[in-house]
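hey can u check if this looks right to u? its 309 residues, i copy pasted from the old doc so theres a chance i mangled smth
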Amino acid sequence: MKQAVVVALDVGGTGMKCALVRPDGTVHHEERHPTLAARGPEAVTENILAVAEGLAARARTDGLTPVAAGIAVPGVVDEVNGVAVWSANVGFRDVPLRDLAVRRLGIPAALGHDVRVGALAEARLGAGRGRRHVLFVAIGTGIAGGLVVDGTGYPGAHGAAGEIGHIVIRPEGRPCGCGLHGCLEAEASAKAIGQRYAEISGKSDATAFDVATSARQGEPLAKRVWQDAVEALAQGLLTAQALYDVGVVVLGGGLAEAGDDLVIPVREAVTQGVTFHRTPEIVRAELGDTAGCLGSALLALDHLGNSEQ
């Protein structure tokens, strides 16, 4: 029999990372495509299905057998029923994406949440491998988490588990897109850090990367903004630890590219803030922006295995 591969897509607000992934987690082929979100949810859906179909064809051309497809999308995802319930980024409203993929590709498919599949990949193949209780925290434009226990992700009763970015840590803090004030996402995301620094410094195009770089170089204003974000993130992680009691927290997303400039002070702040809870190990993600595709493939393989039992 030809060697098996999984068609894997990680759909973002602007771009899609796509791959053919072998069952052992190695990547045979990678592609990137625009999401085309500006054209509306129907166009995005067709785009996803067309790209997946093209990947399946590429696999067959390469002498491989596509055995399943995994698709990760942002927003609220009903993984059990394979429905993209809601996504502000791409406009989804109750799109039965899994069933549409099955019909289009003729192979089993699974639908997952982008951060939760990233968590699955980091827990099994990345920085959390070998650990039973892993919390993956993606810090970028927003903040979200994915809990993985014994290699299995936890989606929650309604597909919305892990939204730690909307833990209120500073009730009188900055307004959040969800309508509240002082959410973790509004205080410590990469977007929030860049905005805060821009407001104070007058540099309207400032990014979180600029703040991290300037803080490392000793600029007082950047150091203050960065430290404020670190303290906010630590508060959010302390709340998450009170809820989940994990062994390791894996920091990912764009802000994790700051490396030790982020991990070390967050680790210190969490350690100082812990009372009776056990302090989790805090590490940087290892898989970078490939985590979504790898996690989508793992989810599809899990779905395939369960359906064959």
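The chain has a mean pLDDT of 95.
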